[in-house]
Amino acid sequence: MPSATFAFNMRPAIDESSSDFPHVLRTPTGLALIEIQGTLHTAQPSSDSTPAELGKLTFDGKTAWLWIGDHQRMEGSIVDLNPPFGVLRRVTRKQSEMEEENGRPDETAVEIVEVIRKKILFTSRPEPIVNRNMT
Amino acid sequence: MLIDVAFPLRRNPAIDHMTDLRTAHWADMEEEEESGTGSLFALDLMEDSDVPEDDPSVTSDGIASISQQSPSGVSKQRATTKVYEITDGDVSCQIQSMEKQQEQGEWDAVIKDSPFDFVTNNMGHDSSKESPLAAASTISMNEMNLSAREARDRLTFSGDTETTDFPFKITSAAEDDDAAVAIEHSSLDIIAKLSLPSALAEDALGLPPPDDWRAQVIKDAPDFDVLPEEEFDILPPEEEFDNVPISAVAQDENFATDDLDSANTTQRQKCYLESQQSISDAQMPLCDGQSSEVGPLRILPYLDSADAFYRKAKGSNGKEIILRARSRFLFNTLREAASADKYKRSSYGIDIEKIMLDIENEDHDKKLRILQNQSETVSTQCDALFTKNSEGELWVEKWRAKKWIDLIGDERTHRTLLRWLQQWSHAVFKHPVPATHNKRHFGESNAGKLVQTDPYHRPHKKLLLLHGAPGLGKTTIAHVAARQAGYDVLEINASDERGGTLVHDKIRGAIDSHRVGTKPVCIIIDEIDGGAESGFIRVLLDILSSDSKAVQQGHRTPANSPKNKYRKTAKFLLRPVIAICNDPFVSALRSLRPLAEMLSYRRAPTPNIVPRLQEICAREKLFVDRRTLTELVDSMDGDVRGCINTLQFDMGGKRIGSSSIGQKDVNANPNVIVGRVFKVDKQFRNKEESIRAVIENVERSAEFDKVVTGCFTMYPSMYYADDMLAKPVEAGEWLHFYDTLSHSMYEDQHRDLAAYLSYPVGAFHAMFSSNSNSPKEYAIAKTDYEAYEAKKSNKDLAKQVIGSASASTQQSFRRGSTICTELAPYLMYIVNPKLNPVNASIVLEQERIMTMHTVDVMIDFALKYIQQRCENGTYVFRMDPPIEQLALFSSQDKDRAAVGKYLIRQCISQEMERNMLRRVSKRNVVAAGSQTSGVKRRKSNSLDGVDHEAQEDDQDSRLLHTAKRKHRGSNKAGLLSSSLSADRMDVNVIDPVEERSIKPSFVSFFKSQTSATSTGLAGLGGHSRQHSLQEWQERMKQQREGRVWVQFHEGFSNAVRKPVSWSDFWRDL
Predict the structure, then answer these.
(1) CA distance B970 to B909
(2) Is A44 on the interface with B (CB under 8 A)?
(3) For chain B, first and last CA: distance in Å?
(4) Contacts A42 to B, Cβ<8 Å
(5) What gap in Å lies between CA B304 and CA B159, rounded to an integer?
(6) I need a labelling partner for A25 at 20 to 30 A (CA). Which of A46, B75, B258, B423 fits?
(7) pLDDT, chain B, mean
(8) Which of B25-29, B592-596, B626-630 is predicted with the least confidence, judged by mean pLDDT?
(9) Quick check: B598 and B459 in contact, CB under 8 A?
C-alpha cells in the first residue's frame, strides 16, 4: 500500500488586510468553494493559462449573487460545511533531498493547503437578466 | 345381465341358407302386444336394429315374417338367449323399483336403466299384462339372478374348455309351436329354468358344430370389434367399420370410444362396452343403415381360450372379421379379470366404470324417489313440489347439465376438451405421465419436441379458448369437464371483473396457491372478449409468457441454481385455464389467439336437444309436442339456453304453435354471413328463396360494408361454374353498384338507398354459391384492414423520405404515389451501387466517385444506415428510413436487400460519417471566419447558401446603418461614405461567381473595407463617434468570444457516492 507523509502547516492568510473580502473567503490561500447545480459553458475552451472569466460574485450578508456572463444571475447562500473540506496538495520533494533523508527514491508528501469551512451554495435556477452595460 | 348369442338350430342340414331374420326393436309395449302371439324371440342386436322404435309397421312385419317362417319349416331358425343377472348390490332395491314400474306398465324403462340389457318379448308382454306379478316376479328375479350367476360362474371356469360352452340361454327352441306357446304362457320362473344352460340342452337341441356359427352383421352397427393385428393373425377389414356413424356411437356418457384404437385391449373392450351400453341407453334411432351388407358370416371357432368371447367370422365377400359377443356380462367378467389400475390409466385417468356405476345408482335412486313420490303423493302435491322448486329459479339454471352424462352437444368437442384437461393431470395431480399412444396429442404436429421438453408434461398450449355462438352451453361444458377431470372450478367473468391488478391477483392466487383439503382449481374465464380493455388479456399474456420463460429457464439452467436466487423467477402455470368467448376473432383477442388452443363449440344436432327439452317439459309439466320442440330448436339455431328460456317464459304451459315462437335476434357475425353467401343451403327449395334468406341475413346484421368486402375478398377462392369470366364481370358490376350506392348514401345523405345495399350480396350468392365452398372465417375481415394499415404506414414513410429531401426534390415529387413509383425505386438503385469493397484504401477511382456520389445522395435525403442484429445473429445495415419498403414488394426482397451487402454498406456508412464530419468542420471554419469578419456563418456549397449569406450580410450592413444613423445629423459625408461602402460590400457579397475561390480574399477585403470605413469615419467624423462604434464592435466580439453561461440542471444531481480505492486516489493526486 502506498503511503505518504502528511503535513499540516497552517499558513497565515495571505491577505488579511483586504477587508473588502468577505469573511468566508478570508482563508489562507483565498480558496472558496462554490457549488452550482448546473454546467458551465464557455464559448471558447478555457485553458489553464488563460482562465475564462466567469463573472462577478457579490455578497450581501448571508446571501451571495453570482453573475455569470452578461445574462445570468444566481442567488445563493453561505452554508457551513460539516465536516469541513480539506484541500490537499501533493508535494514531491526533490530526488536528492529524499535520497539524503531516507534513501527511498520517490517520496510523496501531502500537505493540507486549506481547510474550507463554508461554501457558497447556489441552488436556484439562474435568473435571466439584461446586462446594464448592453443597454 | 344378458348374453345373447344367435345360433342356428340345425334341423335340416341340407338346406344351407340362412333365414333372413329381420331384427326388430321391441321397445314399444303396444306393438309387442300386437305381435306377441307369434313365436317370438328376444332379438339380438336390438339397439342396432335398423327399425326405428316408433315405426310399428316394420317391427310387426319383421316379426310376422318370422312367425310365418317358423311353421313352414325353414331349416334354420334362431333362438336368442337371454340371461339375466342382477348385479350384486342393490338387488332388492332394483327389484322393488322394478315391481313398481311393472305395476305402472313402465317395464320398458326399467329394463333400459337396469343392469339387465333387455328382456324377451314374452316376458315383457307377460309382465305388463299380468298385474299380480309383484310377489312372483321377486321370486323369479331371484331365480334368474341365481341362474345368471351360475351361468357366469360356469363361464369363468369353463373359459379354457371349449368356446361352445359359452353360456347362452335357450329361451325357447322356437322351431316348434309348442315351445313358443310354452314360452308365451310361461311365467318368469319358467324362463329362468329354461335359461339354465347345460351341455345336455345343447346336445338335445342338436347344436351345430362350432364352425357353423353364424351371425348377422348389420353394417352400421358396431356390435363387433376389430381387434388389432398383433393379437390375431388375421387382418381385420377396417373399411367395413369405417362407416360406423359417429352419431350413433357418440352418445352421452360414451366419451371413451375415441380410444378404441388404443393398444390396450382391456381398455378397448371396456370402451366398446361403454359405447354399447350407451347406445342401448340412449335409444337413439340409428341412421338408415342397411342390414347385413356384409352378408351372413361364417363364424370360425376361436382357438384361444382366453378370448372366449370372440368369434372369427368370414363374410360372404371372403373377408375375415372378428366378432365379439356383445354383452355386459363380458364387461363384468373383464372387469374382474383386469386389474384396477389398468382401468385408471386408460381413458383419461378416470375410472369410467366407477362413474358408470355411480350414474346407474343415481339414476335408480332418482327413479325410485320419483316413483315413491308418485305413489305417495297425488299429482297436485307433485305439482306443488315442482312449483316450489322452480319458483324464482330459471329453468336454464335448474336444468343445466351437472354431469358429464347430462351433456348434449358436440361429443367430439367434449372429448377434446376433456383430453386437454387430462393432459394437465401430471402437472396437477402428479399422475404418471400417460404414454404417448394417444394419437391426438395437442400440439404434436408442430411442436412435438416442445411438448416433450415441458417439465410438467402439460399440453403445448396452456390456455384453451372455447368459442362458439351464445347459448350452446360452452360455460356448462367447461364446468362439467373441469369437474369431471377432478378440478374445482373458479369462474371469473371478464365482463364483471374489470380491474387489471385485481384480476391478476385473483388468477395468480388461484394458480399459485395450493389449497388445502380441496381439489385443485381450474380457472374458467367467461366472456373473455368482454374484458379486453381492462387489461385482462394482458394479465393472461403475462402469465403465459412468464410460463414460457420458466420453461426455457428450466431448460437452460437447473431451477435452483444460485444465480437465479435473487432474480425475479418466472413462474410456471400449473393450473389449466379455459377461456370462453363468443367470437375469437375480435381484435381484443388477437394477441391471445396464437397462444391458445382454439376449440370451436358447435351447436348440438337437433335430435340431441329435443329429447332433453322433452324431458324438461315433462318434468315441468309442460305439454309441448315433439314437433314443436324440433321447430323451436331449429328456429333458435341450436341455442339450448334460448330454447329453455322460451319454454319457460313464452310457452307457459300452453301449447303454442311454432309460428308464435319468436325468431331469435341473432347478431350474426359478418364472417358467418359471408360464409353463408358462398354456401348452398339445402333447406331452401329453390334459389330464389335462398337468395332472399341471404339478403335478409345481411339486412339484419346491417354490416353491409364488411359483408361486401368479405364477398369481394373471398370470391376468387371459391368454386363456381363460370364461362369466360362472366361472373366476375357481373360481380364487378354489382360491386360498382354497391359503391355508387354507399357513396351517395354517405356523401349526399341519400339514406333511403340503404334499402338496396344488400342486393349485391344476394347477387354474389346467386353467382358464386356452391356446395363445396367452405370459406375460412378469419380470412375475411382482416385483409381490408391490413391493406388500410399498410397504406397508411407507407404514406407516412413516403412523407418522411420526401420531407428530408431538398426543396427542389420536394417540388418534383409532391405526391405520395409519385414518390413510391418514381422516386423510391430509383433511389433504391442509386444508393445501392455495385461496388466491390475490399479495403477502403484500395479502391478504384471510379468506385470512390460512386461512393462519394452515393454518400452525397444519401445525405441529401437524410438516409442513414443503421446497424442491426438479425435473429440469426448476423449484423446487417438497414436503411433508415426504410425506403425499400416503398420500392420492394415482398418482404423476402426486403430482407435480401439488406443481407449480403454488409461490406458495401459499412463502407458507405463510414464514408458518410467522414463526410458529415467534414461538412460540420467546414461549417465551423466558415462560421469562425464569418465571425471574425462580422459576417455570420454560411453554407459552403449549397446553392441557397449564397442567398442566405447575402441576407445575413444585408443584416450586418443594416446594423452598420443603424449605428451610423445615430450620427446622421453630425456628419452627412460620413454617412454618405459609409452607406456607399455598405453598398459596395453588398455588391461584393452577392457576387455569386467563383464564390469559393474569392472567399479568403473576400474576407480580407471585407476586413479592410470595415477598417477603411472606420478609419474614414475616424478621419471624417469626431473621435467620440469612432470610439462608440469601436466600442460597440468590441463588445460584440467580446460577447461572442467570452460568453459564459450556466446550464441549470433542475432536480439533477450527479452526486454518487462511490468507493475510491487508495491507489486510485493517489494516482489522481
Answers:
(1) 61
(2) yes
(3) 104
(4) 1042-1044
(5) 10
(6) A46
(7) 61
(8) B25-29
(9) no
Mind listing the pLDDT tens digit for each residue in B475-525?
888 888 888 888 888 887 777 766 667 777 777 777 766 666 667 788 888
Residues in chain B with CB shorter than 8 Å from the CB of A37 are 1048-1050, 1052-1053
Partner-chain contact A126 B1048, CB within 8 Å: yes
Half-sphere CA count of B321, side-chain side, radius 13 A? 26
Asked if A71 contacts A15 with a C-beta cutoff of 8 angstroms, the reply is no
CA atoms within 13 A on the CB side of B916: 12
Residues 6 or more apart in contact with residue B666 via CB below 8 angstroms: B469, B637, B700
Contact A54 B1044 (CB under 8 A): yes
B321 vs B663: CA distance, rounded Å: 51
- The residue type of B982 is A
pLDDT digits (tens, 9 = 90+) for B3-31: 444 444 444 443 334 333 333 333 333 33
Residues for chain B: how many in total?
1069
Looking at CA atoms only, how far is residue A76 from chain B in angstroms? 14
Q: Which helix (H) or strand (E) holds B465?
A: strand B463-467
All three cell numbers of B107, joined, read 317395464
What is the length of chain A?
Answer: 135
Q: Tell me the DSSP string of B865-902.
A: EEEEE-TTS-EEEEEES-THHHH--SHHHHHHHHTT-H
Nearest-CA distance from A86 to chain B in Å?
A: 14
Q: Cβ of B340: how many Cβ atoms within 10 Å?
A: 11
User: C-alpha grid cell for residue B281?
Assistant: 341407453
pLDDT tens digits for range B278-303: 444 433 333 333 333 444 444 444 44
Inter-chain residue contact B1040 with A43, CB threshold 8 Å? yes
Who among B1041, B1048, B1062 is closest to A37 (CB)? B1048
Report CB contact under 8 Å: A39, B1052. no
Helix (H, G, I), strand (E, B) or coil at A33: strand
